[in-house]
Amino acid sequence: MRSVQTIAFFGASTGVGLAALKHTLLSGDRAIALCRDPSKLAGIVSDDSNLKIVKGDAHDVAAVSKCLQREDGKLVDAVITTIGSKPVMNGIFLTLEDPEVCQKGMKTLLEALDQRRRDGVSGSPYIVACSTTGTSRFGRDYPLALFPVYDYLLRVPAADKKAMEDLLVASQETYTIVRPSRLVDGVTTKQVRVGIEDPQTGPIYKAIGYSISREDSGRWIAQNLVLKRDTVFYNKIASITN
């Protein structure tokens, strides 16, 4: 029987993060979720004694630090970050209200972990960061038909995700970067196909597809990176698609 884990969530109010949070709680693990508006998440995931909701912003070191410690005083077992920003159009490009939302979030997380350790808190959380396909430096990882979408429309969000990935890879933390294909709404139970890329040497094997639901993405993260802790994904990039 595996031990109960405590997982910190950043960006769990909607989408992939919310799906990952729900499936983590179903397993009996504990979760600490940072939210700017706690009532938003409390209205969705209520009456669960294994969930602690902390009010704050993912770019605030003090707020993030509050989510990184277990009840026994050690650092949490894992961190799942799926933060993002509202998309807005700028000419032909899709940009974000905060074009550096992901890289600033990763900088804040790593700084908060460093601060906790300097304060004497022990532990090495496994960090799972949600990125996107279209960010590989080893060639196209999406169908050719979507080239205009990734190379033009999504250029700004992709640059932010790349910067986030680089920070995490260089951090010396144990991590997995998850790159879902184009995210769509809806609850499905479709099989998830998975590719793995080494950030230094390139693809080990590919899984290229058009889209994946946010629900399937969050469920896959919870089942494979939280519950099973499949070490094949340690310090690797996982591309997931239906």
TrEMBL record:
Q: What is this protein called?
A: NAD(P)-binding protein
Molecular-function GO terms, alphabetical: biliverdin reductase [NAD(P)H] activity; riboflavin reductase (NADPH) activity
UniProt-listed InterPro entries: NAD(P)-bd_dom, NAD(P)-bd_dom_sf, Polyketide_Oxido-like
Q: Which SUPFAM superfamilies match?
A: NAD(P)-binding Rossmann-fold domains
**PANTHER family to which the protein is assigned, alphabetical:** FLAVIN REDUCTASE (NADPH)
| Residue ranges occupied by any NAD(P)-binding domain in the UniProt entry | 11-224
Q: Which family does it belong to?
A: Belongs to the avfA family.
